[in-house]
């Protein structure tokens, strides 16, 4: 792991430079993806079949995954996995129900009513990657908040496969997906955005995917809503001398095993701890099955930042604005006040980040690449709309007439002024 | 105005086709804007001065607008405008304060604490267009929600001008802007996204602008947050036989005068009303100062949709998903239940849309081009982040160990499992 030392300002400058590099656009896939989207828009299902043959080597008969296949998945799934998914579901639900919002209404003056309605988005599409990146936990994390928000129809798409991972189909059914279609890549995103003969057009698309999926989401954004464009996964750990090097190392590696581009960042005020964590990482890597991924990830993107004291640790970590933040300190909870930027925070020596990935209930779809400075974990709020409303009676509009028309004339918008004046009781 | 008649399905198909046309990307400006952003990123203030000379014909000495200029604006501003802005500000504040969110925390089982913090975004940049499109009301609408959210620093940028509109500077100061810089266009957006020697880098950018500003916002999105990319403004009016043709016509025109691309859509179950509104529009257009804008807007983009009954009117209008929605019916409030998609709703015969543009308190920065299907008016929620947190003690993590490791192994992520196992009290 690369060590960064110096004043906070010097370290801040390095972090800022590294973030710029990470947020550089990847334009390579764009031309190809534009062409695929255009064809799906023109040809619908026919284009989906052609692309499935080309990219997935599958001749598709039924685009929709049958109820029979879903029922069979319940027979095939490992009982322990089923039970773990059920428990995770209950935790995710009880956490996310606390995010439900209600509207408001007030009557600030005579003849005036103002308010805000909360409405679920009507139809949502969830993308679920295929193959080894098929994570049933991600199905729960994407679908359950939409369901709790009250979304009427949830459509899932996933690349066609001879044998679907039963846990994916079970998680989908359990979470309340209404229909599953087997189509992946940018053609799948295009189908959700424009609709085809078989697949209904949705209002918003969520879920992770490769560069083609991400590029397609970016291109259809505006016509439909999207969740976010996720970058490589990150963990930031703030640890002082009370931290256990073996725990910290294990958590850094749990992030590093995701992807060679994943980033693991330790901020500590203890050089001793930094040394011990590095030794532990090496020891644990020796026997790690995914060490071919975790080792280059740690070596290239691992960072140890040596800070002067607790305040500096938090100040620097707020600049990192990590997706996952662990606070490995004895009184971790008391330091929550100092957290300004992070997707999800894990407090104390025992709250390993995978607890959150799978189980505790908070969402694992999180803002990466320092975007937690301005955005948040996926939640119920991503599946609702806030609709404003206002009612003025004739008395109220006449009372407000002078102010409103003054502003309208000052902005040179006479028709705005007239729309108020025409309501005046003299007229 | 073009009339659409037929079954709901037939009208729905036409509306969907028109929406596709509207949401087509405009790629023309992209290459130019990319180049401008790159130069600002490299050269900072020097690039800003060069572009201001080139695009605004202004030799800039001070990028920052001085306190003296702001104080002078308070002397110059028309007293009635000042008073109207103060009243509007009070209404906007009292409405938006109702949007403030609080976090939550629960203890779902022994040794487990979960919660969600609400944190303001730290630094926000607001773009304010120059010249005739300089609207003091927009300054209030963009800045006040950020201020109420608790944003620490609000930076405003606006194109350089010999004489600033005093109402713009007054509105900025009144709303709580911390610093104003005179730089416009995509170079201004680039300065906010990357920072320069003078202008600090922000976390999120809001505010309307021309195609160069919109394209720049789209390109820097990800490095910073943005509010939305607004399309042409729209009004939808649902009116039955109780509506006043003169009021409806005036409101449709108040939208049409904004822009030749603005859209005014009337949905009614009364052909008589439709005829009367059309006659009124013609009558009112005769004397309207901005008729050279309003007339082509109404003629090209005006639509009258004849629906069968109240349910059909709402069903079709929910497909339009208008930015502004007026319900010109006697018991308008009772129909709120039927509204699924709209940015802001104006209830009853007297609630003319300009009441909302300027005054009542709900925000006027709204989702256009049917994006109210999945997004909402600008509000306090756009200036906060929700940070999740979780704490498990050793007992709790050991209790959850089997479920978590089962899922981790099922997903092939062994380091995730090990991070849990290493915390087991046997170790």
From TrEMBL, chains A, B:
Q: What is its EC number?
A: 1.1.1.23
Q: What cofactor does this protein call for?
A: Zn(2+)
Report the co-factor binding details. Binds 1 zinc ion per subunit.
State the PROSITE patterns in the record. HISOL_DEHYDROGENASE (PS00611)
Note one Pfam family from the annotation. Histidinol_dh
Please give the pathway this protein is involved in. Amino-acid biosynthesis; L-histidine biosynthesis; L-histidine from 5-phospho-alpha-D-ribose 1-diphosphate: step 9/9
The residues the record assigns to binding Zn(2+) are 255, 258, 357, 416
In the UniProt entry, which residues are flagged as the active site?
323-324
Top EC category: oxidoreductase
GO biological process annotations for this chain's record?
L-histidine biosynthetic process
Record-listed substrate binding positions:
233, 255, 258, 324, 357, 411, 416
Q: Which SUPFAM superfamilies match?
A: ALDH-like
What CDD domains does this protein map onto?
Answer: Histidinol_dh (cd06572)
Keyword annotations of the record? Amino-acid biosynthesis, Histidine biosynthesis, Metal-binding, NAD, Oxidoreductase, Zinc
For this protein, the record's PANTHER family field holds: HISTIDINE BIOSYNTHESIS TRIFUNCTIONAL PROTEIN, HISTIDINOL DEHYDROGENASE HDH
State the similarity comment. Belongs to the histidinol dehydrogenase family.
What is this protein's function?
Catalyzes the sequential NAD-dependent oxidations of L-histidinol to L-histidinaldehyde and then to L-histidine.
Q: What is this protein called?
A: Histidinol dehydrogenase
